[in-house]
Amino acid sequence: MNRNGPARSRAAALAVIAACLGVLASSPAAGAATPKPITGSLDRKGLTVVALAPHGRITEARARPGFRLVPPATVVTLHLRNRKGDYLGPIVLRGRGGKVTVGVRAGARLGRIAVLDGYARARHAPGKRAYDKALYARARHGVPVGVGSLGWVKGRPHGPRGPGRDRDRDGIPDKFDVDDDGNLVLDVRQQRTAPASAEARLVATKLPLSACPGTVCSGNIRVSASDTDRANLALIVAIVAAVLAAISLIWQVVSSRRWRRQRVTVDVRLGLPIYQQGGGDWCIFVEVVNGTEHPVRWVSASLELPDGRRLYLMQQPPGGELPAILQPHESHQTWTRARELEVAGLDLTEPLVGAAKLDSGEIVRSRRGRLLSRSAAKRLRS
To answer: Which residues in 285-318 are b (16+ Cβ under 10 Å) and which e?
Structure first.
């Protein structure tokens, strides 16, 4: 009987167990602690906050409007998506000039975050332990240069590739950047020689749903007249992709214009100014609020009546002069006596619209409404 067989079996089993223990001890999951969560609160509901690590791993959390998410690495960048999965831009922590900080450390408490047009910004700069200044982006007046174009801006690449890196420093990471090296050539065009399946995987990982499909962006639609059987399916796919891309582009333009108009608002109301020397006459006030991040110039004010007439407020009182420049998040108002407008044919009980014209030619209107109810008008007349 061979006694070496059981001894060899035991030795082999012990070797296997030791190897398994060594693998478990050397694995990152066993030795690395879970990063502390990042917390904050958006000023809009229904959005998703995405933490993106340099190696490409992501974690996400729904903002209600507060959020709490565990990042996939100790240093990440934060980004926003809407309910449809469209990419809405990065979250900026600090910086107002030509350079902004986007690196966030695990455990950061960001507080209130304002969601702006194409990006978001912390309302108050967090402490030094909350950010990593090594992760930064080029900016104009505090806005990353890649915002609004999905990173299709000129730049120079720096450092290694990676889905969570931003080689051209435009604020849009390579995972969402349509031109990650900043050479003004779409990445899908540079991959024209890759197989169709590889190109499809590249487009799926690099572009959000709202971006144009790879077949259209690359301009590489080929139809062989000698093989119509195989070309029919490709032609149908290309046509559908082009139609979807056109609809997406038109919808983005319309949504952008509508959003900008809504950010500058007009309010019309009836008021009684009170002076130190005594009471005054009832006046109609037209107020414009600039909710954008850029100054706007208000040049004229008017009232649009139901019958199509328009009354312009030409004689502004001291303090209500036009034109006027409204800085971001500031307001300005002008007014005129209601009695003078009633002489011109204005009925305070009829619905009207206040209109403000900007120097760009855009006319911003208020909601249609009555300045005075009919019951209140009867009481005043009696």
So the answer is: bbbbbbebeeebebebbbbbbeeeeebebeebee
Q: What is the mean pLDDT of the chain?
A: 81
pTM for the structure as a whole: 0.44
How large is the greatest C-alpha to C-alpha distance in the chain, in angstroms? Answer: 124
Q: Which CATH architecture has domain 263-381?
A: Sandwich (2.60)
Q: In the chain, what are the domain boundaries?
A: 38-203, 263-381
Query: Which one of 9-23, 76-90, 153-167, 270-284 scores highest in mean pLDDT?
Result: 76-90
Q: Name the region of 67 (left: φ>0; alpha: ψ -120 to 50; beta: rest).
A: beta
pLDDT for 197 beyond 70: no
Q: What is the separation of C-alpha 129 from the centre of its chain, rounded to a whole number of angstroms?
A: 26
Residue 108's pLDDT band, with cuts at 50, 70 and 90, is very high
pLDDT at residue 212 is higher than 50:
no
C-alpha separations of 240 from 84, 144, 246, 322 in Å = 20, 33, 10, 50
Residue 92 phi/psi, 5-degree rounding, is -95, 135
Amino acid occupying residue 20 = C
The two structure tokens encoding residue 367: 């909601």
pLDDT in tens, 304-347: 998 889 999 888 888 889 999 999 989 999 999 888 888 888 88
CA distance 148 to 198: 27
